[in-house]
């Protein structure tokens, strides 16, 4: 079927591409890449010779119209980004929106995503979470954003860049307090994969003291807000007290 396929690519380990993804990339008429040179390396590694076109933040709206015209002519298209799942802090939203409005099929493939990979290994509650993308670069906007999230009970997930990690951790200590539990996942699926966890103040200190912790790709996660009643006694203690109360005369 003629369709726009949304195809995740690895976030480090090349073995994380699916056989279905390789099959789609091989058989579509065109691959829309965030960066054709970057993706060229990945595609040639897998022996994929499909024609490429660039689709990035600066040309997405124009290119979307042209891609719709390609679909109208019966040509299937795959969208990939530099790494991970397209549209997740990456281009593609305008394209998918436009393609759907034009009445064409959109077929998303599941695959690598740094946020989900990080969350699943973090040890933080995963029943409810909020993906917040990148924190603002300017301190004032960053603190405004964090203050608005301060009492959110869900696990919060942020993407980070290595040169801003210390500033972001400092803002988290300021907005959420030094005791908020956080987990920093670095270089996921790669040789130097590291998880750092502890209080916001402790993680900040560790990252400040060790320049290696400021390198590579980073996902930052914060435990959600715990109201007074639940933070004073852990759920285990509360459950134990309930059982004791039932047993007492
Ligand atoms: N679309 C991608 C995805 O599905 O995860 C995210 C693209 S976004 C432009 C890049 C950010 O994702 C990085 O700054 C980092 O926060 C996170 N990221 C990507 N790969 C990662 C990895 N291997 N380990 C940790 N974080 C990673």
Automatic annotation (TrEMBL):
Domain Tetrapyrrole methylase: residue ranges: 4-202
InterPro entries, per the entry: 4pyrrol_Mease, 4pyrrol_Methylase_sf, 4pyrrole_Mease_sub1, 4pyrrole_Mease_sub2, rRNA_ssu_MeTfrase_I, RsmI_HTH, SAM_MeTrfase_RsmI_CS
The EC number(s) this enzyme carries: 2.1.1.198
Protein keywords: Cytoplasm, Methyltransferase, rRNA processing, S-adenosyl-L-methionine, Transferase
Classification via Gene3D superfamilies: Cobalt-precorrin-4 Transmethylase, Domain 1 (3.40.1010.10), Methyltransferase, Cobalt-precorrin-4 Transmethylase, Domain 2 (3.30.950.10)
One GO CC term, this protein: cytoplasm
Subcellular location: Cytoplasm
Domain of life where this protein originates: Bacteria
Principal subcellular localization: cytoplasm
Reaction catalyzed: cytidine(1402) in 16S rRNA + S-adenosyl-L-methionine = 2'-O-methylcytidine(1402) in 16S rRNA + S-adenosyl-L-homocysteine + H(+)
Molecular function in Gene Ontology: rRNA (cytosine-2'-O-)-methyltransferase activity
Entry annotated with the keyword Transferase: yes
Function: Catalyzes the 2'-O-methylation of the ribose of cytidine 1402 (C1402) in 16S rRNA.
Family matches, as PANTHER family: RIBOSOMAL RNA SMALL SUBUNIT METHYLTRANSFERASE I
Assigned protein family: Belongs to the methyltransferase superfamily. RsmI family.
Stated name of the protein: Ribosomal RNA small subunit methyltransferase I
């Amino acid at each position: 079927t003629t369709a726009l396929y949304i195809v995740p690519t690895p976030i480090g380990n090349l073995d994380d591409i699916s056989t279905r993804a390789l099959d789609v990339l091989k058989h579509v008429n065109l691959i829309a890449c965030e960066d054709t040179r970057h993706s060229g390396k990945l595609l040639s590694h897998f022996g994929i010779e499909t024609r490429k076109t660039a689709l990035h933040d600066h040309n997405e709206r124009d290119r979307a119209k042209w891609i719709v015209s390609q679909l109208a002519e019966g040509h299937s298209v795959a969208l990939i980004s530099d790494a991970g799942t397209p549209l997740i802090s990456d281009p593609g939203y305008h394209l998918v929106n436009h393609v759907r409005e034009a009445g064409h099929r959109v077929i998303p493939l599941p695959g690598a995503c740094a946020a989900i990979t990080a969350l699943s290994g973090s040890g933080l509650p995963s029943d409810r979470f909020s993906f917040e993308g990148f924190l603002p670069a300017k301190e004032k906007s960053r603190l405004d954003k964090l203050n608005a999230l301060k009492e959110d009970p869900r696990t919060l997930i942020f993407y980070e860049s290595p040169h801003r990690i210390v500033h972001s951790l400092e803002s988290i200590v300021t907005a959420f307090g030094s005791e908020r539990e956080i987990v920093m996942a670095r270089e996921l699926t790669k040789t130097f994969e590291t998880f750092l966890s502890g209080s916001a103040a402790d993680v900040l200190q560790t990252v400040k003291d060790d320049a290696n912790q400021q390198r590579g790709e980073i996902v930052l996660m914060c435990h959600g807000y715990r109201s007074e009643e639940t933070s004073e006694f852990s759920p285990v203690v509360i459950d134990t007290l309930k059982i004791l109360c039932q047993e007492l005369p």
